[in-house]
């Protein structure tokens, strides 16, 4: 029996797998991974935006091995040095004053915690989220996920209202200028809050990830912030995909909207552990310490994962991988735009740094083309390139998010494979 058949016999059907015959990854190095048949692939999805710096980064391997040799886990009931040191560094980087950091093991759990803090504070289950958003797979994270492809239940512990603004690729809003778009969305938010009682928070991704790497114009969340402040509503910035310099211009996605200061609560996960399960929440002490009960995450802040996070973050900062994401990402976007101009099914190449979306449509129309996206993924894989896809039910956006250490030569190599795959598919 193949590994795929064995997988289907024990793993739920709803676990999404790319590719008709799924790949068994055995190992990786740098920006490449290998499968069980010995094929190598350039990894343009960085795991799933999880391998932030590089596969098998020696500093991370060493930190994990050394820490594992001392103690694997001591629980959050006790102190461990890597956890406190990583919290200090993240608090300083967050931009949030008097910040406190709480570690979790995933982005879902981080968003759950943020929603718990906000709803407990306001004593209200009413929250706002963006249309086409994705925030995780727990009951409450699904309840603020506006992207129905990833939100299997309409039942919810929260009362969620969906706000305009996170996605702007189609509809009447798409025809507005940046300033008009921001003004229209802020007025809509004002109107909504004027008619709604006791809203606890707005949760939003600065650039929608699973939703197809769509972003609002810079400054949208600064305009929202001003409205939210007047109504006493907290702003939760979900930086699970946009954090750690991936967008090149900024360390956090919220910084493209910094006009009115940092978010009240920031959530993170994915890349910080370079594949180890590290997530977390940052908030001002007054918000974070407001929970009127004990709450721990059994595995959050575990010494081995914290050691990985510290080594990974140090490598990222010491080697200016944010700057690399800006430079190499800029080149890659340019190359892809040149290629896209020759392929009728490419509607738009968008992105920032090393977070790049290629949206596909049926040629001559504005209609999503999920079959083409699936075919390009297969053809790219044949050519030795792994990419992601997203964009809601239609899933017609190719998502490119390699490790931030991507070289210019690798960017060229990946762009050439993708060009062939686009033409072939
Ligand atoms: N938030 C965003 C923006 C995400 O993209 C994801 C995962 O893709 C999550 C939250 C959930 O994170 P996790 O899968 O670690 O629970």
From TrEMBL:
<protein>
    <recommendedName>
        <fullName>alanine--glyoxylate transaminase</fullName>
        <ecNumber>2.6.1.44</ecNumber>
    </recommendedName>
</protein>
<comment type="subunit">
    <text>Homotetramer.</text>
</comment>
<keyword id="KW-0808">Transferase</keyword>
<dbReference type="Pfam" id="PF00202">
    <property type="entry name" value="Aminotran_3"/>
</dbReference>
<dbReference type="InterPro" id="IPR015422">
    <property type="entry name" value="PyrdxlP-dep_Trfase_small"/>
</dbReference>
<comment type="similarity">
    <text>Belongs to the class-III pyridoxal-phosphate-dependent aminotransferase family.</text>
</comment>
<dbReference type="InterPro" id="IPR015421">
    <property type="entry name" value="PyrdxlP-dep_Trfase_major"/>
</dbReference>
<keyword id="KW-0032">Aminotransferase</keyword>
<dbReference type="InterPro" id="IPR015424">
    <property type="entry name" value="PyrdxlP-dep_Trfase"/>
</dbReference>
<dbReference type="InterPro" id="IPR005814">
    <property type="entry name" value="Aminotrans_3"/>
</dbReference>
<keyword id="KW-0663">Pyridoxal phosphate</keyword>
<dbReference type="GO" id="GO:0008483">
    <property type="term" value="F:transaminase activity"/>
</dbReference>
């Amino acid at each position: 029996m193949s590994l795929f058949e064995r997988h289907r016999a024990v793993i739920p059907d709803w676990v999404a797998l790319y590719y008709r015959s799924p790949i068994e990854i055995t190992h990786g190095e740098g920006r490449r991974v290998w499968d069980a048949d010995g094929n190598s692939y350039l990894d343009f999805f960085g795991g799933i935006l999880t391998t932030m710096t590089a596969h098998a980064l020696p500093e991370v391997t060493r930190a994990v091995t050394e820490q594992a040799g001392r103690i694997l886990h001591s629980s959050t009931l006790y102190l461990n040095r890597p956890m406190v040191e990583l919290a200090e560094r993240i608090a300083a980087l967050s931009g949030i004053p008097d910040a406190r950091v709480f570690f979790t093991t995933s982005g879902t759990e981080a968003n759950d915690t943020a929603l718990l803090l906000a709803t407990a504070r306001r004593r209200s289950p009413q929250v706002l989220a963006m249309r086409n958003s994705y925030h995780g797979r727990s009951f409450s994270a699904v309840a603020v996920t506006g992207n129905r492809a990833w939100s299997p239940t309409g039942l919810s512990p929260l009362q969620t209202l969906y706000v305009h603004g996170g996605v702007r690729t189609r509809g009447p809003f798409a025809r507005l200028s940046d300033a008009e778009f921001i003004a229209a969305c802020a007025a809509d938010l004002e109107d909504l809050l004027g008619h709604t009682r006791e809203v606890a928070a707005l949760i939003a991704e600065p650039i929608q990830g699973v939703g197809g790497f769509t972003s609002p114009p810079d400054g949208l969340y600064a305009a929202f912030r001003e409205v939210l402040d007047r109504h006493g509503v907290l702003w939760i910035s979900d930086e699970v995909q946009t954090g750690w310099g991936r967008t090149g211009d900024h360390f956090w996605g919220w910084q493209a909207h910094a006009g009115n200061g940092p978010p009240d609560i920031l959530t993170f996960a994915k890349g910080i552990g370079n594949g180890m399960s590290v997530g977390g929440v940052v908030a001002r002490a007054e918000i974070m310490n407001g929970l009127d009960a004990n709450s721990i995450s059994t595995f959050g802040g575990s010494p081995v994962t914290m050691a990985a996070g510290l080594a990974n973050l140090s490598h990222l900062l010491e080697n200016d991988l944010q700057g690399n994401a800006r430079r190499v990402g800029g080149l890659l976007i340019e190359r892809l735009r040149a290629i896209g101009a020759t392929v009728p099914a490419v509607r738009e190449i968008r992105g920032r740094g090393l977070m790049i979306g290629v949206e596909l449509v049926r040629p001559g129309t504005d209609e999503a083309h999920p079959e083409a996206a699936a075919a390009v993924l297969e053809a790219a894989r044949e050519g030795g390139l792994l990419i992601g896809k997203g964009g809601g039910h239609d899933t017609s956006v190719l998502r490119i998010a390699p490790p931030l250490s991507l070289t210019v030569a690798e960017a060229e190599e990946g762009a050439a494979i993708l060009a062939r795959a686009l033409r072939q598919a």
